[in-house]
Amino acid sequence: MKKRVFLALIVTFLLFSGEVFANGEKEYPNQNINVIVQYSAGGGTDLSVRGVLDAAKETLPSGTNFAVSNVTGGAGLIGLNQVVTSPSDGYTLGVLNTDLVINYCLGRTKISVEDFEPIACALIDPFVLIAAADAPYTTFEEFIEYAKAHPNEIVIGETGMGAAPSLAVLAIEQFFDVKFKTVSYGGSADCVTAIVGGHINATIAQTVNAASQVQAGNLRFLASMSEERLSTYPDVPTMKESYADIDFFMPGFCIISAKADVDPAKVEYLRNVLRPAIDSDAFQKTLKTMGMQTINMDGAETKAFLADQLKLYSKLCKDISVK
């Protein structure tokens, strides 16, 4: 009830505030706001962003809306480049994500998190370690002990050198001083299929990729790479529960963002529109359907999170050469 009253107050404020912005513009927005998603329609990034926007659109002034454009290619960099080269008028938003941080750390782009002002976290969904249900290890501790006793024996599927799952494997290897064999596949779904087929032993991915196989009893989530247990799978322990010194928190994330130099008053307006939408019943239902989760952080919390991610991936990528 309190949440509904809060949302109603926010809506009333947004509709009648009539704030004057830095450039003298009286009304914002007075036209559609274009949101560029750098991946194809129907994927996790696209669905989560659209879910937030759909839940928020009723709070926009009459005659305005959010318009999503899927601008794909270049590992997401083509769409992000279109965002950072657009006018700084608040009418073009983009999506900060894990791949941008990694591409920046690998030297593939000069676009960085500093080019954006985060607005709302549509998705923060930690990676999990996934293994066959009949593997000789049923916990993360047993998995690590097995790896120490059998160097280069465990075969882990990943989605290409420099992609987030491969860097998650590297983080585990470096922290525990263990070695795995890795095999690259076209996507996380292929890795899951390979475990079920007995071709590899494990993979690291988001839970949605293996949920049906876990439910069928073929696979097992051993541990999540998160600071707290997943809301979607509260029975799955975190790696940090077993090894308190672990210092890597590795989620896939999608953060709706403006350019860094957009009028702060417009950024605050957008936060007041989009952050309540994340807590809405409609978007929470969307997340549940996707089997994913998020954290509704404010601007300062989101920037601290991004700084931690940049520090982590900078460390992991420093010795990697990817063409």
Separation, N- and C-terminal Cα atoms:
53 Å
SSE run: HEHEHEHEHEHEHEHEHEHHH
Radius of gyration over alpha carbons? 21 Å
Number of beta-strand segments: 9
Mean pLDDT: 90
As a percent range, the share of strand residues is 15-25%
Largest sheet: number of strands, sense, barrel closure: 9 strands, mixed
Structure class:
alpha/beta
| Distinct helical segment count | 12
Spatial shape: globular
Give a brief description:
Helices cover 40% and strands 19% of the residues. It has helices at 2-16, 44-56, 77-84, 98-105, 140-149, 164-176, 188-196, 211-215, 239-242, 264-278, 281-290, 299-317; strands at 33-37, 66-70, 92-97, 116-132, 155-158, 181-184, 202-206, 219-224, 251-259.
Note down, in words, how this protein is organized.
This protein has helices at residues 2-16, 44-56, 77-84, 98-105, 140-149, 164-176, 188-196, 211-215, 239-242, 264-278, 281-290, 299-317, and strands at 33-37, 66-70, 92-97, 116-132, 155-158, 181-184, 202-206, 219-224, 251-259. It has 323 residues and is α/β, with parallel strands linked by helices.
